[in-house]
Amino acid sequence: MNAVNSFALLKILTLLFALMSSSAEAMREYPLPDADTDVVGEVFWVTARHEDTLVELAREHGLGANEMARANPDVDVWLPGEGTRVRLPIAFLLPPGPREGIVVNLAEYRLYYFPPGEDRVFTAPVGIGRDAFRTPVLETRVTDRIERPSWTPPRSVRESYASRGVELSRVVPPGPDNPLGDYAIMLATPGYLIHGTNQSFGVGARVSHGCLRLYPEDIERLVWKVPVGTPVRIIHAPYKVGWRGDDLVMQAHRPLTEFEDEDMESALRQQLGDHLNGGRIDWDVAKETALQARGIPVVIGYRGETLAAISE
């Protein structure tokens, strides 16, 4: 094989490896940090190519489309443009409460899984229930894991389809037309489950009839890791606060419409909790971070001598 052909083959293999790796790494995995740290991952930047969209970059880097759009408010979702710097918000404050089981933060459109007996966390974007079929805040548990599930849409969903002139079967068999995708995690709460999808563009947005959608590669990686009986908490925490060393860090997301009437400052104080006694807080920065809701961790206070920004 001559040098030109070898170089061409190397380029092809490199591209295939990159595609395989980006798919395999869609669900992020991190070692659990020390007790004084609540942040995993880091924000970084990439340079868009002519053919890129924010939706494609989100999928490639284990993010939802909404996460990417909020972090890059001045960038066109479909035409970022050659050479445009795109921020990847791959830094996450762990959700409030026990670090166990599955936790889904609706305001964040993100799932966290803390496997039992392991000092690590998996996280992936999720699609949640649209406004007419809201995913509820609740506590439940895993009851089963299913490969190639059938879908039995409830009457409300069949009626919703019928209003658009679509007659939906009472049972949709496994296959490419099944919105549950290839795998499903069944929950003890009737009518709700965590599943894949045949419409990946809906991951990270309000698109479902109440269930939680994962990218196909993410549900495939997660489904057999989660034992039956695993606790599941679905929460709504638009403002997450935690420590990164001596820095008090806040990650803000836009509240869902059904929670918009809640007082922002009261919600902030509730999330800050004991942190109010653990360090000094710059309320102007905290409020501005909440209003912008970019999903980027921002330092709002400290217990040391200086504020160290981690938002860029």
Count of DSSP helices? Answer: 8
Trace the largest sheet across and list its strands.
1-8-7-6-15-10-11-12-14
Number of domains: 3
Beta-strand content: 25-35%
Fraction of residues in helix: 10-25%
Give the oligomeric state of the chains in this entry, treating copies of one chain as homo and distinct chains as hetero. single chain
Give the end-to-end Cα distance, rounded to a whole number of Å.
46 Å
Identify the overall geometry.
Answer: globular
Would you kindly provide a written description of the structure presented here, covering whatever features stand out?
The protein is of the alpha+beta class and 312 residues long. Helices cover 24% and strands 27% of the residues. It has 3 domains: 26-93, Membrane-bound Lytic Murein Transglycosylase D, Chain A (Roll); 101-235, L,D-transpeptidase catalytic domain-like (Beta Barrel), CATH 2.40.440; 239-302, no CATH class. The strands form 5 sheets. A 9-stranded mixed sheet has the order 1-8-7-6-15-10-11-12-14, with helices on one face. The chain has a 4-stranded antiparallel sheet with strand order 16-17-19-18. A hairpin with a 4-residue loop joins strand 6 (101-105) and strand 7 (110-114). Helix 2 (54-60) packs across helix 3 (65-71).
